[in-house]
Amino acid sequence: MIGDEEKKQIMEVLDSGNLSTFRASPGEHFLGGKKIREFEEKFSKKIGAKYGVTFNSASSALHAGVVAIGVNPGDEVIVPPYTFTSTATSALMHNAIPVFSDVKKDIYCLDPKKLEKTLSPLTKAIVPVHLFGHACDMDEIMAFAQKHNLRVMEDCAQAPGGLYKNKNVGTIGDCGIFSFQETKNIMTAEGGMLVTNDEEIANVARMVRNHGEMVPKFKTKNLHIRVFGLGIQNDRA
Questions:
Q1: Reduced to 3 states, what is the DSSP secondary structure of residue 219?
Q2: Of 18, 129, 147, 206, which is least packed with CB atoms within 10 Å of its CB?
Q3: What is the DSSP string of 12-51?
């Protein structure tokens, strides 16, 4: 539903003459325009995360998340077979390998008891999907991930505002991904966001969003970015 409030916000952007204000230069322009940064701040605060990084889609956010949590080309990422395609293709976009692990029959989310069967020496991460607004069994998934030193990226495209034991989904793993496509609870026509409490994950995600370009102002140590999963690496101590 598009009302006067939405129209007013859109007209403010159009009247400013700056549609996104993303520019490959140091400073605030690298982080997007005023409205983009305002949305990131308000949404991440509402979710309970320190950082929010917007994207043109949740699919792009998932791709950036795969890179940001340290998955390398050839690594395996455990995903459910019952989800939107981007959950799996985000790994493929980084030349990593999606490995399907079965879902529970009652909630259609990843079955923690089946994860052991898909584990291999190449496994690097798990992507639990909170489906139809229902949260995954995150305690069991996080315990499994910690036991095997795996990263966790929550796919929350269908669960904005969803809770797991009074904790917002998207803030339990290393990062969470939300969708603002026009059929979602909160929509921007198209769009997505990565939220995280990890500053380095946020910075890497921002750089993937900007084609791997670096910004000296980011305070992070030994930051490595693999652009497009082709082994191209930019390093800054």
A1: coil
A2: 147
A3: HHHHHT-SS---SSSSGGGG--HHHHHHHHHHHHHHT-SE
Dist CA 2 CA 216 (whole Å): 40
Q: What is the helix (H) or strand (E) element at residue 8, kind and residue range?
A: helix 4-16
What crossing angle do the helices spanning 4-16 and 34-47 adopt, rounded to 10°?
Answer: 140
| Burial class of residue 192 in the structure, from the number of CB atoms within 10 Å of its CB (0-12 exposed, 13-18 middle, 19+ buried) | buried
Say which residues have a Cβ less than 8 Å from residue 172's Cβ, sequence separation at least 6.
Answer: 138, 142, 152, 154, 164
Angle separating helix axes 58-68 and 199-209, nearest 10 degrees: 130
Catalytic residue among 104, 165, 184, 217: 184
Q: Does residue 87 sit in helix, strand or coil?
A: helix
Count CA within 13 A, CB hemisphere, residue 174.
Answer: 25
3-state SS assignment for residue 234: strand
Q: Are 30 and 22 in contact (CB under 8 A)?
A: yes
Q: What is the pLDDT of residues 160-176, one digit of tens each?
A: 999 999 999 999 999 99
Q: How far is CA 201 from CA 85, 175, 189, 206, in A?
A: 23, 8, 26, 9
* Interval 199-228: pLDDT, tens: 989 988 988 888 776 666 665 554 554 555
Domains of the chain: 37-236 (3.40.640.10)
Residue 184 a catalytic site member: yes
